[in-house]
Fold:
Amino acid sequence: MKSWTYILLKRDLLIAFRRSATYITPLIFFLIVITFFPLALGPQEKLLSSLAPGVIWIAALLASLLAVETIFNEDFRDGTLDSFFISLEPTFILVFVKVFIHWLITGLPLLLASCVAALVLYLPFESVSAMILSLILGTFFMSLLGALGAALSLGKSAILSAVIVLPFSIPTLLMGTSVIASAINNQEYTGFLMIMGGMLAIGIPAICLLTVEALLLSYD
Amino acid sequence: MSLRFSYVKLFGKIALSMLPYLKVENLSCFRSDKALFQDLKFDVLPGQNLEILGSNGSGKTTLLRILLGLLKPDAGSIFWLDDQQNYNNYRTFSCFYQGHQLAVKNLLTVAENIQMTKASKNIDIEAISKCISRVGLIDPHEYASNLSVGQRKRISIARWLLDFHKIYFIDEPFSALDDEATQLIQDLILDLNSKGSSFVITGHRSSGIEATHINI
Structure:
């Protein structure tokens, strides 16, 4: 017997895999934004490495918003969301699975691309692990916020959800850049990572519940 | 004495099986101060069908969505029978809903579209192939994006057969279908009625299946 969560995960990953634009677009967008900086500013190692934390994080935040449309809107338009609501399964699980899939198709490729970004922006090798850890926590939080934005703008354009979500991503941006900047300056950064972890621990139940309410609101 | 006792038990069982799955009382819905429907009252009995008839925009789909809890009514109550033969004002059993949007994914094949639904979690591939051939779909590996509206509807109809549902809510089941598919739906409805399932369907005119009619 397969669980409903497993079927949902398999189905959405299969659809995302077949529509390669879903995961390739954020990846390409991220890499293009990153490569613009050395091209525009010139190959100045000191300047680029001091800008790197901010550049990587802003590019990652914007890139993770590109696939927000795929979280709920498609299911809403083709009637799949209706069948979720009448299936008597907890909507919370549906929302969490959707967030996890969004992270797998946008956040995970960004982690790989960030290693290229580290090379391009002359990020010291010692700070790469800090960057990856902060991106794991931060991109998952962005997927949660993306789901909330997508639920609030159900049936409307994706740009609206981006506008809703971006102001709430400021704490993630601040913490994420602080982690990389501290790692570059050989300072302790675990405190910032703990705050990001704490945000995620509160965010998973709180934002998922808010998203469920936002979805129900859109139905009324 | 024991014979009398078993008769009482049998009649009791029959009486219980005739309790309506769904009871609707004084249901009303308004849109922009205009009443879509008002004071609707009906029951859905096991193995019996209900046909909601009305012209375009009369509120048939809205009524189905209200019954399923996807929309809120402006007035009235909906009661669902649970396993203990009590009525609750929240839905207690899994229903099947087929709206105008058929929940068919373009990027999945016919077989995948049927396989990757909640109802199919306990069902093996062979049973799914049987469902596909029963509804007259030829190639299970064809992508849904290459299918016509009628063929996509057949995918949704194949899902009816995956699991037992007490009530099937089907929005305009006979639209965009040829005569063969229409006959297929009528046969399936009869078949599922005999197993105790009920159908609540909408349409512009009576479809010819045995059902109680409501005009809205």
About this structure: Chain B touches chain A at residues 65, 68-72, 91, 93-95, 97, 99-105, 107-108, 112, 116-118, 120-122 (CB under 8 Å). The mean pLDDT of chain B is 85. Helices of chain B lie at 2-17, 60-67, 110-115, 125-134, 149-160, 179-194. DSSP finds six helices and nine strands in chain B.
